[in-house]
């Protein structure tokens, strides 16, 4: 197999498959876009070798039967047209399957759940192990017949093979447990069976969790020593990391630098002399090149980077790096949707993950003036989209800077990756000659009317919500006060690098509160969180929550949950604890992070001003309702629907 370049799309479950596990046409379109975008190798998401017992996810692809082959053939044929190679990751979920979906108790090496608090599996009988080995082989053979160029065996990430490999989940006393050689036996049998089925000239990749990043789990050193027991049939190692309980090092949190874990691929490559893939927050072409040039890895794996930017390779190859729409590793649209919400994947920065960018080929048939009020991410997406289809767009932004809350929050050092999104939008906007941007311009209905709009977009965002708690009005954000909200905190940044255990108390337990917590614990503050709900971060995405829980544990954050704030004083909060008792929580700094609420300074005026006209006032993003960035991006792109219903398209 010869790849046209060294970028591989890593396998990522999408929930795009049909309900029966067949690939859908939309799914083919999704992969085709990435192939068109220039990627050298696509490794299709984990496909089920043993249904329903080994299935994973809400609507997972299957290849346990011949009937799934024709549509997958169509996929390989489509991808090959664009010069890309394509493989598929074959997998048995083991204890990561869910009884609620399969109707069966999950199976594993032993009776240990694949993550804290999840279902207890049943240990596999020996005969069952051999049956499953055969199923891997049969599935690989089918993959070959479907026209795939290679297969990848998933031996990491808390799925069945990894559950055998990890001493944390394998407590067997037979020849499949105990020593490393025994724990790797299942993997070796699978590899040998797959090789038997596909023959000597068909590449086999093996994905491993080189470091499990859990106490008592395999370290990189263990893996380097033990991989020998997998035998010699692998042609390449796809060097991933972590298990379910350390997921934020596998689907990396945003603060990890690009390619931070390439040292693992380097170590495996040096020890075993096989081509290795590395991945993990790799978004910067310079960093990708550096990894290859240093010889740390042979192939750059890119997952979320290609959800966000299918054209990453072409843009880089053509010197259009400034146009890259980089993934910001927020984990909202992709993994949260897929793994926690049973939804198909979406993306915070790319509102067209599955359907692609063809919208820009459509143009308005007559002049359409669009006025966008507010230059945050939602407003910018709406303005760019409308301009791209030929509207004349005027964007009015009150402040001196575009980018809104995303721009502001990403001034927190741990959040800088988020800045890539407003940067991308600003750059995209700057190239559109029919988009006119007015900063430091406060909108009112008379000004908006001067642009003779056909459509007005209200995208004025959100502001911190401050409930009427005794004392808060007198103290919040005042010059000599210790009590601030996120806006004031950003204004006062940077705080000292070493806060010498100063007491920081945060009211609230949502995303902003946790960002504030993360900022201060890393500066040696003594942090307390006061949250009314029974847990902190209850509505966070899975990966971030795991990471933040870990961070709170590591830095000893005091978590006062089911606790309500009664009064704010100069240097203390008065709270009611879960037992109904009143307590005092003293602070050197206090932050009110009790959520955001829609900010609509001109909406009503606009609605009234255009009430008797044909002009539509379209309210989007946080000014409709404070939510994640992703909803604003989607609603910004949905301006296409307004343009359509107003009759401006052919
Ligand atoms: C939505 C989603 C689904 C994923 N599904 C798989 C999968 O099916 N198999 C797998 O080995 N890794 C899976 N991963 C991990 C990715 O392949 C990749 O290793 C990880 O996201 C880190 O690389 P990145 O920073 O380039 O995204 C998934 C990641 C995401 C975000
Ligand atoms: S949703 Fe967030 S993490 Fe996922 S691909 Fe998009 S930007 Fe990246």
Provide a descriptive summary of the structure in words:
The protein has 24 helices and 25 strands. With 650 residues, the protein is an alpha/beta fold. The strands form six sheets. An eight-stranded parallel barrel has the order 1-2-3-6-7-8-9-10, surrounded by six helices. Strands 13-12-11-14-25 form a five-stranded parallel sheet, with helices on both faces. A five-stranded parallel sheet has the order 16-23-17-18-19. Helix 14 (377-388) packs parallel to helix 16 (420-430) and helix 14 (377-388) packs parallel to helix 23 (629-637). It is globular and about 75 Å long. The two termini are 46 Å apart. 53% of the residues are buried. Residues 304, 307-308, 327-334, 347-349 line the site of iron/sulfur cluster (SF4).
Contiguous helical run count = 24
Beta-strand content bin: 15-25%
State the total count of DSSP E strands.
Answer: 25
Summarize the amount of helix as a percent range: 25-40%
Largest sheet: 8 strands, parallel, barrel
Spatial order of strands in the largest sheet = 1-2-3-6-7-8-9-10
Global morphology: globular
Rg over alpha carbons: 26 Å
Mean pLDDT: 96
SSE-based structural type: alpha/beta
Low-confidence stretches: none
Distance between the termini: 46 Å
Heterogens:
flavin mononucleotide, iron/sulfur cluster
Could you provide a short overview of the structure?
The protein is α/β, with parallel strands linked by helices and 650 residues long. The protein has 24 helices and 25 strands. The strands form 6 sheets. Strands 1-2-3-6-7-8-9-10 form an 8-stranded parallel beta barrel, surrounded by 6 helices. A 5-stranded parallel sheet has the order 13-12-11-14-25, with helices on both faces.
């Amino acid at each position: 197999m010869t790849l046209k370049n060294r970028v591989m799309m890593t396998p990522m479950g999408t929930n795009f498959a049909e309900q029966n596990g067949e690939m859908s046409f939309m799914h083919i379109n999704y992969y085709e876009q990435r192939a068109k975008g220039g990627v050298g190798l696509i490794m299709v998401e984990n496909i089920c070798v043993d249904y329903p017992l080994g299935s994973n996810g809400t609507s997972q692809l299957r290849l346990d039967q011949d009937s799934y082959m024709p549509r997958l053939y169509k996929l390989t044929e489509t991808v090959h047209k664009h010069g890309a190679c394509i493989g598929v990751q074959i997998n048995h979920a083991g204890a990561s399957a869910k009884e609620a979906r399969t109707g069966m108790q999950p199976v594993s090496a032993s009776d240990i759940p694949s993550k804290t608090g999840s279902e207890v599996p049943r240990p596999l009988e020996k005969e069952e192990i051999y049956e499953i080995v055969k199923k891997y082989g049969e599935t690989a053979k089918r993959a070959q017949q479907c026209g795939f160029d290679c297969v990848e065996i998933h031996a990491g990430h808390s799925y069945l093979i990894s559950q055998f490999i990890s001493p944390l989940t394998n407590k067997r006393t037979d020849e499949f447990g105990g020593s490393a050689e025994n724990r790797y036996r299942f993997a070796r049998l699978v590899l040998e069976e797959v090789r038997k089925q596909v023959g000597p000239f068909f590449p086999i990749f093996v994905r491993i969790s080189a470091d499990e990043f859990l106490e008592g789990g395999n370290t990189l050193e263990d893996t380097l020593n033990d991989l020998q027991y997998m035998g010699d049939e692998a042609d390449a190692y796809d060097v991933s990391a972590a298990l379910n309980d350390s997921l934020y090092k596998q689907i990396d949190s945003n603060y990890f630098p690009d390619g931070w874990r390439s040292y693992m691929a380097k170590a495996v490559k040096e020890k075993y002399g096989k081509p290795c893939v590395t991945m993990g927050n790799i978004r910067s072409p310079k960093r990708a090149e550096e990894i290859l040039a240093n010889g740390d890895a042979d192939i750059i794996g890119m997952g979320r980077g290609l959800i966000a930017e299918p054209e990453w390779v072409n843009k880089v190859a053509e010197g259009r790096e400034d146009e890259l729409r980089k993934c910001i590793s927020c984990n909202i649209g992709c993994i949260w949707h897929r793994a926690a919400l049973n939804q198909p994947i979406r993306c915070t920065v790319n509102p067209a993950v599955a359907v692609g960018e063809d919208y820009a080929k459509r143009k308005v048939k007559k002049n359409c003036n669009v006025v966008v009020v507010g230059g945050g991410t939602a407003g910018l997406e709406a303005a760019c989209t409308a301009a791209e289809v030929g509207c004349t767009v005027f964007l009015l932004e009150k402040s001196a800077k575009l980018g809104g809350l995303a721009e502001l929050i990403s001034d927190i050092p741990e959040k800088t990756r988020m800045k890539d999104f407003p940067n991308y939008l600003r750059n995209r906007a700057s190239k559109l000659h029919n988009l006119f941007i007015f900063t430091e311009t406060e909108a009112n209905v008379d000004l908006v009317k001067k642009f003779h709009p056909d459509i007005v977009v209200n995208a004025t965002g959100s502001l911190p919500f401050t409930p009427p708690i005794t004392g808060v009005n007198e103290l919040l954000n005042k010059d000599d006060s210790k009590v601030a909200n996120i806006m004031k905190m950003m204004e006062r940044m940077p705080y000292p690098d070493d806060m010498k255990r100063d007491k920081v108390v945060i009211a609230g337990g949502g995303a902003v509160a946790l960002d504030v917590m993360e900022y201060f614990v890393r500066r040696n503050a003594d942090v307390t969180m006061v949250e009314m709900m029974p847990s902190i971060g209850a509505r966070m995405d899975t990966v971030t929550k795991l990471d933040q829980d870990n961070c709170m544990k590591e830095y000893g954050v005091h978590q006062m949950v089911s606790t309500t704030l009664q009064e704010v004083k100069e240097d203390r909060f008065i709270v009611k604890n879960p037992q109904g008792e009143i307590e005092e929580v003293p602070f050197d700094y206090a932050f009110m992070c009790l959520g955001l609420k829609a900010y609509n300074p001109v909406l009503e005026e606009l609605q009234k001003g255009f009430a008797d006209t044909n002009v539509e006032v379209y309210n989007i993003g946080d000014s409709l309702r404070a939510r994640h960035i992703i909803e604003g991006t989607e609603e910004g792109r949905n301006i296409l629907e307004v343009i359509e219903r107003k009759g401006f398209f052919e």
